[in-house]
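Hi support team,

I'm opening this ticket because the web form for multi-chain structure prediction keeps timing out on my end. I have pasted the exact lines I submitted so you can reproduce it. The total is 964 residues across six entries, so I didn't expect it to be a heavy job. Is there a limit I'm missing, or should I split the entries? Thanks in advance, R.K.
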Amino acid sequence: MGAGKTKRMPRAVREQQMLDAAVSVFGRRGYMAASMDEIAELAGVSKPLVYLYLNSKDDLFSACIGREARALTEAVRAGVRPGLSADGQLWSGLRAFFSHTARHPDAWRMLHLHARTHGERFAAEVAAMRAEIVAFVTQLIAAAARDAHRVPHLPEGEVAGLAEALVGAAESLADWAGATEGVTAKQAAATLMNFAWAGLGDLMTGRPWTPPEEPQPEPEPVPDPAPRAAPSPAPVAQGAG
Amino acid sequence: MGAGKTKRMPRAVREQQMLDAAVSVFGRRGYMAASMDEIAELAGVSKPLVYLYLNSKDDLFSACIGREARALTEAVRAGVRPGLSADGQLWSGLRAFFSHTARHPDAWRMLHLHARTHGERFAAEVAAMRAEIVAFVTQLIAAAARDAHRVPHLPEGEVAGLAEALVGAAESLADWAGATEGVTAKQAAATLMNFAWAGLGDLMTGRPWTPPEEPQPEPEPVPDPAPRAAPSPAPVAQGAG
Amino acid sequence: MGAGKTKRMPRAVREQQMLDAAVSVFGRRGYMAASMDEIAELAGVSKPLVYLYLNSKDDLFSACIGREARALTEAVRAGVRPGLSADGQLWSGLRAFFSHTARHPDAWRMLHLHARTHGERFAAEVAAMRAEIVAFVTQLIAAAARDAHRVPHLPEGEVAGLAEALVGAAESLADWAGATEGVTAKQAAATLMNFAWAGLGDLMTGRPWTPPEEPQPEPEPVPDPAPRAAPSPAPVAQGAG
Amino acid sequence: MGAGKTKRMPRAVREQQMLDAAVSVFGRRGYMAASMDEIAELAGVSKPLVYLYLNSKDDLFSACIGREARALTEAVRAGVRPGLSADGQLWSGLRAFFSHTARHPDAWRMLHLHARTHGERFAAEVAAMRAEIVAFVTQLIAAAARDAHRVPHLPEGEVAGLAEALVGAAESLADWAGATEGVTAKQAAATLMNFAWAGLGDLMTGRPWTPPEEPQPEPEPVPDPAPRAAPSPAPVAQGAG
DNA sequence: TATGAATGAGTGTTCATTCAT
DNA sequence: CATGAATGAACACTCATTCAT
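Hello R.K., no limit was hit. The queue was backed up. Here is the completed structure from your submission:
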């Protein structure tokens, strides 16, 4: 059922078939809910062959992440027009990004939703990919700031946060576009440019948004009555200064 | 061992203990990897009691989602200063949001990472919460547009996309703040305001970002099917012109 | 089928039933060939219960070894008449030993044949039991030597080898008695006493067996043509000086 | 990788390589834990070739047993000096035996530990070898009895038991020598001669060991069924009177 | 109100064995 | 003579769920 069992394929080909099937299943079900049985069946092979070629569920997942992370970064890289201005580069990169995630929704779900959920290993693998993209965007923002040359450069930490916000917004929009009928990659990219770029522009021209004065120290008046059953391992940020 | 078995509690209290434990375990492990055994042990009760009160793993998860979604929306609602201007309201709402997610990282992980991953049912439940927040943000944006009254109002669809982008950026920043040492809720909120508000302002004052003219219809020249597992370790960012 | 499923037993009882079944299966099949399914079925319970009570196949095997090793040493200890002469004690001890191994053939097979075959852990556990018995026999031989008082005492190393030989002979005879119809525990014990004791007596009275003079250094003229495919991990004794 | 694939060997040679590898793996791992994969890899050939030449795991094991059993009996036979007295023959035979087992520990483990553990078939094959050796020893004992000619001959059944005990003791000592650093074949043989021969001599000269009178029919007063898992860490040996 | 005892159905993983070349 | 490709059947182990008390 499905792939049509063409027998006796060379290893490299079979391996790609398995990765295809695995990405599909991992993307739709998540790591834990994905069963090796389903992956093998979708790949049109028996389970032992999957293990022979890819060792274990963990290794298989890892291989999927690696392949798809590489594919995504390459797609973005290939989509960027090198000679353009910063916003032109961002625009083309975003279009490539949304285009790729729209074409490979399972891969995107796998990378964005599931890989960060299971074990440091996988999280680290996607984090590496993400870091690459964030670095790229950071460069773009810095370059745009230079071009605007009204401020010499934005403070480092500020840029990091902005790049993070931009990439995060892109990721969320990719989810949204993937879940919403009739939203094209181009529209998603335009929305994000609209949303983000002009604001960045203001920033760069020295007109940042400033928080209003406020006397009271802390929001969240809800006393949060739920008594924690046990301490969460590591609550990172405990409140605003 | 662990929670100190205080026996014979009234049902309501026990139920909350169970939900606390469940949120903690679901948030840290994910739905599939969470085991009813661990939840029961962390709650300090026996497994049958969990089933007696909460029926099934699915129902338990659902109850967790409901409680935490309600808690989050209430926290945001309570944090918003009603009399303020649109950006003042957004700022206070964001602070409440980041503050709450920082204080309840397991709950946030459960809602944002895990609930959307398993079955339409849970996804719908978080979607409802999200829709509430998006609606609120949409109102704010529309109100801001009215205040600016240079354009009568932004087109509906546009506003939806922008609200989506804003909320998505907020969610991503919440993840990021939760994972990064030393980022406070206030800082996260400020970053997002900086990033977004001025851009929105430009939009509202009639200076949207416009895409450049381009002849070719779609990027992604990579023929894509089965990107071979092997080569291309080349990094994305080569520098901005 | 089989054990008659009497339901809802207290844990301690069920645990012993499981150990009984496990000893039987391990003894007959060996560690590797024993399946948890068969053990569970023979015990009249489902597999998960076996895991709930005994954790893993390894732990189950370990528990079996522990219980049966204890049972064997206790049986021997209980069988020895304390007030008797050395040979009287040996005789009664041997009878108890052969009696116990004959009554619990599966346990004996498990301890003697299988436990030494799988992993240092199990080997060490039986080795501890064996060491106890060897120590007991060593004492007896030394005591007999003192009683004979014609030689002050046998050299330490010599006694160790003799005790080892005696225990080894006993073990082999236990196997033999277990495999041969119509050989009783008493007969096996008598055979071993006949075989060993008088020889020991001679030793103690100063008439040891002495090897004949021989010029040539080494036997084994067979050139052993088989070319080893790979070096055995550790060939212990490479020949006689 | 590993054995260095020298291709195109004549069948007989390849077959011996496979048997070498198989003996090594079977001896170290046991029958069940040995994998055809490991054997094939150690032999430096592909798995199908192993099957082509040796049919199945069972047949392979059988072939190993056959070859090594033959090698052992031949080594013993070749080691015996034909013209000697009975004890001289035994001495030389034992030296050859211990020498061979020391040189081929994997083979010895395979024959003595593992082959008796799996199925009647293999047990029968080693039993045949063993029977040959027992018969040889029986001859020697009978011959010695004739030489001593004080008793016409020991009763048949008695001799069988004694030969069994001697061979069993030899086997146990072989294990012991293999596991104990610094015990040579010669020492092991001497120990056994010391242990056994003088005792046999006494037997032959009409001074057997006789059991003491005893009224009670059978020891083992322990009620035995299900010795509770818990107590009694008391050691066996409390001292000899 | 609360639990110790128990299981059906499934998971990832391995292995002896066989084709097709 | 020799192997890369492939699998059916089994195994150890886990989990959500339910009874009987």
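A quick check on our side: Residues 64-204 of chain B form a domain with the Tetracycline Repressor; domain 2 fold (CATH 1.10.357.10). Let us know if the file doesn't open in your viewer.
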